[in-house]
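Please review this pair:
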Amino acid sequence: MTILDSPIARLDGSAATLGDITGGKPALLVNVASRCGLTPQYTGLEQLQETYADRGFTVVGIPCNQFLGQEPGTAEEIQEFCSATYGVTFPMTEKIEVNGDERHEIYRSLVETPNESGEAGDVTWNFEKFLVDGSGAVVARFSPGVVPEDPALVGAIEAQLA
């Protein structure tokens, strides 16, 4: 069993697994929030989606309200904000917890991977990014401050699509 087998609902509440949402493609999993200083990263995430979707890649937005309550909205409010403000077309999941006792099972595996500084453990803030391959193996982790257009992140995505 891989994280792709983990159940997680889509933002509209319909039942799915992470594999259903990614389509078994390489994916960038990002815990997102609508009221964060890093929220403008949605623009770069959508650009990654537009650039690489035809090559078998997807971004997956995973709303989380654990960091100073910066994702307080309902699923409908999150969807409206993302589409109206940033033109988001990539799939989004239900709002989950990424740290603590109620951490979603997907993140139990993800947080074991060290980031670009060699540090593993809890998600540090909104917009932490995990690149998984088509089989669900985590191949890279990027800190929240690493922007979607960062050459290291783009290079890691392109390596998965080669």
